[in-house]
Amino acid sequence: xxxxxxxxxxxxxxxxxxxxxxxxxxxxxxxxxxxxxxxxxxxxxxxxxxxxxxxxxxxxxxxxxxxxxxxxxxxxxxxxxxxxxxxxxxxxxxxxxxxxxxxxxxxxxxxxxxxxxxxxxxxxxxxxxxxxxxxxxxxxxxxxxxxxxxxxxxxxxxxxxxxxxxxxxxxxxxxxxxxxxxxxxxxxxxxxxxxxxxxxxxxxxxxxxxxxxxxxxxxxxxxxxxxxxxxxxxxxxxxxxxxxxxxxxxxxxx
Length: 254
Ligand code: NI
Known about the structure:
With 254 residues, the protein is α/β, with parallel strands linked by helices.
């Protein structure tokens, strides 16, 4: 069994096709899917999907690209953080790739959401792009408090990965690990400890080979797991069992 630990079934590209997507997933043995929010509306949709379908779980949160000069309202989150199908706060973090002009606003939004996660004893799902050092510094302070979380679609170096592992974070790999010239994710796959590894699709983005460029969906997490097994020189079943168990452990799913 596989667990797609990060998919946006709440995205406009996928929201009309939930039943088909779940049927396709089951054909590839993808039994569980974590639907991740990126703003208020997508978070509420994730909760709705999770309440409607047994195999879907939800994460709610505001993506760093939403940060702006106004203080974003987070009070609505408190209403859902106690829902048993809401298993994480995410995706949250820092993204300096698209916009470097709102670093302070991003940090503040990230900090406030980490504090909420801590209050509700939920793990955090971290989006980090071109912001490795700042993300690490903020997580280091936060993770002191018996927190847990995952570096989603991890794309930094294997050296930086060790720092995040030392904080207690899990590492999640996605479609890029299957790309022919993706040296860094393949290096990460080789050395990441099996007991800290998650797999994901980040659907509808980042389709793995052989579907690169097409709309991604959770069934394709199979190709991510297959490529990691090849790189690590272990059986597919071993990757499958480890990542499924890790995802359930991190998100408190029985
Ligand atoms: Ni995502």
